[in-house]
Specification:
13% strand, single chain, 274 residues, alpha/beta, seven-stranded parallel sheet, globular
Length: 274
């Protein structure tokens, strides 16, 4: 049976978005990928036959335009993957308001605008939405107020779709990954490696450091997240609505208060006693 679904994937040029686009195309659906950088999208277009539409969906006209392009090319929209996102550090006392506004525009307002444009067509197709949030929507870390708040807002935005449109056949679910190897995470790991004096290991050593206390003890890979996204979009998940799926190597299952029983946790740079 031919899979005639059409799925829009934002942030589709790399990482989880690229892996999701590749997996969906392998299964048959038509895929329209969006993102701010043109070349990665065009490369995907050449390699796997997606439709590339570079755009910033934080702009209302761009969000409407992305939906129009998908409809013009394929005549329908069956799924939307809200994957585009950025991060900025800072605490409540020292965050930059410019950083706050750009993160909220990308991580929250952009998804809202795209959903507003796509909802009439998702209603026609009894379609599905998957938001790529983060464990930061559920648990917090230091100097993470902007990113964590935006991802928590994205989670509830998607759940609002589940509640408001479920009876009309539209499903909406959320995945919350922990550290996943990607361009954005690689940049953060490179900075962390320098800050923590991790030596020649660079980003690889940083990934090992930030995931060594996780039950699985490693970062995720984009295809592992893509598998969950593709399943949530599919008819196999037809009774899954408003769910929050953690894909985090067990991070949110772990009680930090028990770590001392298995690990000696000391300030970075200090010597571990014999």
């Amino acid at each position: 049976m031919v899979d005639e679904r059409v799925v829009i994937v934002t942030g589709g040029g790399s990482g989880i978005g690229e892996a999701t686009a590749r997996l969906l195309r392998e299964g048959g659906p038509q895929v329209v990928v969006s993102g701010r950088r043109s070349e990665p999208l065009r490369r995907l277009e050449r390699e796997i036959g997606v439709l590339a539409h570079p755009s910033d969906v934080g702009d209302p006209e761009a969000a409407d335009g992305l939906v129009r392009v998908a409809l013009a090319a394929h005549g329908r929209i069956d799924g939307v993957v809200l994957n585009a996102g950025i991060g900025r550090g800072g605490t409540v006392g020292d965050l930059s308001l410019d950083d706050w506004e750009v993160v909220m525009r990308t991580n929250v307002t952009g998804p809202l605008l795209l959903l507003r444009a796509a909802i009439p067509h998702l209603l026609e197709s009894s379609g599905a939405v998957v938001a790529v949030a983060s464990v930061s929507a559920l648990r917090n870390g230091t100097s993470n107020v902007t990113y964590a708040t935006s991802k928590a807002a994205l989670l509830q935005l998607c759940r609002s779709v589940a509640v408001d449109y479920g009876r009309q056949g539209v499903r909406a679910n959320i995945v919350c990954p922990s550290w996943v190897r990607s361009e954005m995470a690689d940049r953060r790991m490179t900075r962390f490696a320098e800050e923590a004096n991790l030596g020649a290991g660079g980003a690889g050593a940083a990934y090992e450091e930030v995931t060594r206390l996780l039950p699985l003890g490693r970062p995720g890979e984009p295809p592992e997240i893509a598998e969950a996204v593709a399943w949530l979009l599919s008819p196999a998940a037809s009774y899954v609505n408003g769910a929050v799926l953690t894909i985090d190597g067990g991070a949110t299952a772990l009680d930090p208060g028990t770590l001392a029983f298995d690990f000696h946790v000391a300030p970075r740079g200090s010597e571990v006693p014999d």
